[in-house]
Design a protein that fits this description.
The structure is a homotrimer of 306-residue chains. In chain A, helix 3 packs across helix 11, helix 4 crosses helix 5 and helix 6 crosses helix 7. The first copy, chain A, is globular. Chain A starts with a helix and ends with a helix. Chain A folds into two domains: 144 residues, 3-Layer(aba) Sandwich (Rossmann fold); 155 residues, Aspartate/ornithine carbamoyltransferase (Rossmann fold, 3-Layer(aba) Sandwich), CATH 3.40.50. In chain A, strand 2, helix 3 and strand 3 form a beta-alpha-beta unit. With 306 residues, chain A is of the alpha/beta class. The first copy, chain A, is built from eleven helices and ten strands. Chains A and B meet through strand 3 and helix 4 of A and helix 3 and helix 11 of B.
Amino acid sequence: MFKEKFSEGIISAKQFNREDIEYILKQGRKMIRVKNSHILNGKILATLFFEPSTRTRLSFESAMYRLGGNVIGFHSADVSSFKKGESIADTIRTVQNYSDCIVMRNPLEGAAILASRFANIPIINAGSGSGEHPTQALLDLLTIKEECGTIDGLNIGIVGDLKYGRTAHSLSLLLSNFEVNIYFISPRELSLRNRYKAYLQERKIKYKEITRYRNILDILDVLYMTRIQKERFVDQEEYEKVKSAYVFNEEDLEKTKENFKLMHPLPRITEIHPNVDTYSDKAIYFKQTGYGLALRKAILAELMID
Amino acid sequence: MFKEKFSEGIISAKQFNREDIEYILKQGRKMIRVKNSHILNGKILATLFFEPSTRTRLSFESAMYRLGGNVIGFHSADVSSFKKGESIADTIRTVQNYSDCIVMRNPLEGAAILASRFANIPIINAGSGSGEHPTQALLDLLTIKEECGTIDGLNIGIVGDLKYGRTAHSLSLLLSNFEVNIYFISPRELSLRNRYKAYLQERKIKYKEITRYRNILDILDVLYMTRIQKERFVDQEEYEKVKSAYVFNEEDLEKTKENFKLMHPLPRITEIHPNVDTYSDKAIYFKQTGYGLALRKAILAELMID
Amino acid sequence: MFKEKFSEGIISAKQFNREDIEYILKQGRKMIRVKNSHILNGKILATLFFEPSTRTRLSFESAMYRLGGNVIGFHSADVSSFKKGESIADTIRTVQNYSDCIVMRNPLEGAAILASRFANIPIINAGSGSGEHPTQALLDLLTIKEECGTIDGLNIGIVGDLKYGRTAHSLSLLLSNFEVNIYFISPRELSLRNRYKAYLQERKIKYKEITRYRNILDILDVLYMTRIQKERFVDQEEYEKVKSAYVFNEEDLEKTKENFKLMHPLPRITEIHPNVDTYSDKAIYFKQTGYGLALRKAILAELMID
């Protein structure tokens, strides 16, 4: 059923209704305890990364090996025929002959949709420009579910560059399937785009847009930090003024609830102070990478098992 | 027998007589239906790519995994000791300790021969500068054989930069084993080098050199397009004048015979219009990549099975 | 026992006492005859190379596959999140969720120690700046043991940039566990650092520092050549004066003892003349790469077998 619905792959968080999410989280949960398996023996995953990645690529590759499969691919546009001017459509129509599923990261927002239109095997969108990164959002939900016991009823803050941040986009779309209060926290010029807000409004999701998280730390169950790139600010003086408001530190942690969880898709640059790392009951961003492996095993298994 | 003759590897299309070609095409044909196998369990293929590649590297790697083997290698000269000034001879004498067969692409024309002189395991030339690319030509013949039912008796046009195009060189050499009429189509300054023409003449192959293909579209069975790089033209005005003559479009397709086949080693940049792609009975360049996988499985199996 | 002692990994040659070395050389010797095995089935090695490598990375990867395991990783800092500013500590705490052991090369001298402090799986230092490269030194000892029959009692010359050469550092530290005479041969400005000399003195190792090897060729059992980078010389005229004194040639070979062995960690640029290569009883640097594979198989097996 999941396999049929997602036969073209996982392109956008919008493909997922609540039932789909609950199903894949249940499968992800099972995978936490399955270290190795042979269910994908003989299968090949192609990982086509036109942009750098550590976590996403390596977790997909590890997941594939843990399930008995193999991996081909490239890690940089420079070593592929993209450098010679080949189109995504042509690359996809070639690589599908060599593999059973394609994971692609590309700087263009529409790249994953385009790829899925030309492919006869499932495409997994591993980040498409400032668009989406749906498997990151799914692993974020698995993390919340496992660490908080529930998703419904939570107060969830999402901090950072919400305009260009593909992780924040996909997470917001997925959360629209749950009874949550979302706080979108960003500088005004980097607030969530209207199209995402319209989607949430249609689905009657309660959300607020604010520019600081320090006032609401005592009510949050989850704070999801993301990176704000200096270069995104039109006014660099403005950046200097606000940047410390987006660096989570030990003092912040003290103001949080007992069951509070701090998350981050990583890489983290300066936006969480390293001292916070030691509070591993609340600072769960490294654990999150472990849930990522389990979730990606579940996805690969669902899409490729015969 | 094949294994003994090719124990040093596959360096040039000149190594192949008609019997060798027919044998490897027969093996390639069998591999079309063998999705997975264990015949190369425990074997390691090294893919040493000093130049970018999508199709060649990924199809060799996929072929190796489909047969049960493993792969090591590098995809860019920048990440190897080549960057520190190591010679090809030293690289080969090292890597042969870690693998059972080496696939190499290198910008120097003589690289593959040099490598095979120092190696004690088979070397497969995956493109040596403006020299040769023999496994591409073998997969081209497999494609022709499977799609046209025969190679003998065909009228085959080869278009593009025939002076520097390694694919065109290897294909011409292989075709000299068959009863074909070849049309070499290129701007005059990029015509086939004398050494290749001399080889064809010795073997009494009928060929013509022309600068346009549009007049002969109605007699061709196969048109093999390749890329002409703008940079190859001494006179850029000349390039602007001729370039449209080397872009295959829908109108061209209408002038072709019912069983006409359009091929391309890919990547294709502008030399075939995307509209042509939809005529998949005649436009077989993506199917060609599938035959490539089968042919490379056959080659790896032949060279490495104990 | 080995596994317990080295549960944090292999960071420095200083971790090894004579018993440890003899144990791992014995295991390495056994691996020479074991081509393939399944002892690491289901295990994943991560190879994180922030600097280029041919031998080290490919031999670890080949070793892993020969033992039945799999490999993930990156070959250049450019394709990882390091490019976005991620710290080594964060990269390690992520990748340990995807793998069973990490091999890392990094331009910073303290990188491997730092990594092992944060990791909960073994870290193998595959070169840390101008610091150490302990598995290279272990394979050098395996080579000496197998080719000379003994390590004790030998006269061993180590030539090159001893100040910055991490291979020379680790080899010197390991040799301090044996009864050897070491000749350190380098231009004065590139002589061994005091900290390494102090270590040898403490352990009562007989060593001499000289600037030329030609006078002692008749007493040496092993000469270990390494590269001197032109850029290391403050005075380029000085470099031009001395450089030929550091190029081993055929005439040098004639002055050596019957059982003399010439070694090199490779890549070799100009410091051994290619004519010397043909004297394969004395010039054993390519054989050395084969011992490297065996030794690395032994290390991976020791660190990862359950």
